[in-house]
Write a structure and sequence with these properties.
The structure is a homodimer of 296-residue chains. Chain A is of the alpha+beta class and 296 residues long. The first copy, chain A, has eight helices and eleven strands. The first copy, chain A, has helices spanning 17-28, 55-72, 101-119, 133-137, 140-150, 190-200, 237-250, 287-294, and strands at residues 4-7, 10-11, 33-41, 46-53, 88-97, 123-126, 170-174, 179-185, 210-217, 222-229, 255-261. In chain A, strands 1, 2, 3, 4, 5, 6 and 7 form a seven-stranded mixed β-sheet that branches. Chain A is globular. In chain A, 50% of the residues are buried.
Amino acid sequence: MEPIVECVPNFSEGRDVGIVCAINQAIGSVAGVRVLDQTMDADHHRSVITFAGSPGAVVEAAVRGAAKAVETIDLNLHRGVHPRLGAVDVIPFVPIRGITMAECAAMAVRAGGEIWKRLALPVYLYGEGRRKLEDVRRGQFEGLRNSVLVDESARPDFGGPELHPTAGAAIVGARKVLIAFNVNLNTDDVRIANAIARTIRTSGGGFPNVKAIGLLLQSRRLAQVSMNLTDYEVTPPHVVFQAIGRQAAEYGVSVAGSEIIGLIPRQALETEGVNLRIENYRPEMVLEYRLEQTLK
Amino acid sequence: MEPIVECVPNFSEGRDVGIVCAINQAIGSVAGVRVLDQTMDADHHRSVITFAGSPGAVVEAAVRGAAKAVETIDLNLHRGVHPRLGAVDVIPFVPIRGITMAECAAMAVRAGGEIWKRLALPVYLYGEGRRKLEDVRRGQFEGLRNSVLVDESARPDFGGPELHPTAGAAIVGARKVLIAFNVNLNTDDVRIANAIARTIRTSGGGFPNVKAIGLLLQSRRLAQVSMNLTDYEVTPPHVVFQAIGRQAAEYGVSVAGSEIIGLIPRQALETEGVNLRIENYRPEMVLEYRLEQTLK
């Protein structure tokens, strides 16, 4: 069986579906690649495209997607509630079958080199012996484009030191399957979401393998705990969902529901009877289901 | 000021975002056209793309979108809960400013002629002195491709008598701004949604300018009253929403929420204090807001 790699780039455009579709088509133009999912969020002003295929095809598709993002997105005009550094913000390669994490990390280095060479877009490497994603993105586009000029340790791994004037920089790496899981609270007080995020995330002494921030969804007037679960076998969604519900109750606030951004492995939906109340649930969001459907 | 026409084609693909994006890009490739919205529904297996621009550009974009649908969608493989006749199922032209309904009907004739000539896709004309949409679509793809052979009155206005073997036929016409409004019920008993649909729709002696059917959303196990409000100034959404809530209560069922497919005019959100509980509400779904943003 041919090795299969998943790639889940995040783009800093969540409102203009024409731009996101242009990126989608650039990715899908590579033979041997299938686009599995596309999610847009107007408040985050961000979209996530999930695709998979053989390693060589996936690297080429990632570069073509990045090229279209550089062409169409100007970060100087971009305001959203999700932190971001680049027009194509993060490009993770994920081993699915017949390939190791180390091989995916080598794909990231290859893709990063191509992105700098072909697009003049500086690249940071993250994960597995490289920097941490949240460290790279600290300060975001507006902050980092100044600090790269004075702080050598902040410089990109490919290109730079200056960031791209409109597209910033891309952050490329290998990682395990990640679940992007957001829990919405029935309040517009973002301080409550922030306080809960601080207690549940790993860096605050909470659950292992959890990154969390508080955000305000302007369009729905709801505060949101926005999370990445970086090892769902250690900390599954229902564990953080219950913890958030308990803490929210202490603030006198209820949980409005939850959302999955992108795809979720089937095993993560085994919740020991907890109802995750996923507002956007569809069978199509189950990773194995989409892989079976599209990669024979 | 240049006249502005809106076009809201429905395509029989609601699952593969790559196909819908390819159609989106074909439409957006015409200078003078802006894509305003794209909605996909996996259960309906249907997507709706809203775009606007000057009359000539809008006709050309409609034909290019139809061409991409003919190329990518095969109705022989299509199963969804929404009735459909074609790969591009219905193509309505809507006067927005500086253009009359009669001029939009003339655009429909022009687009229909082009679609037959360039794509060999038969076309039915509907609205304003032509057939009714629901009459054309009765029997759907599987039924009509037989009946056109024996029933002269069922034959297309352009092309035919045979339908296209994979893409069926398109239904093209002019109409007022329409609101596609769905109300979801907390039951998986589709008979309740059907019974309610029958009493509220115009053809059942209900409200004027309301078309309604009952559907089952497989992925959410919810029954849905799926509606087109063809003149929201006569019958606004909150009037049908309240009527559905009252009738559902008589069946012992509550309303789970509602959805807008595509865009909604601002005036239709003036609901006299009724909360429509639109699950997918975003400021971006307000028609005037999108037009202001994109057409200067």
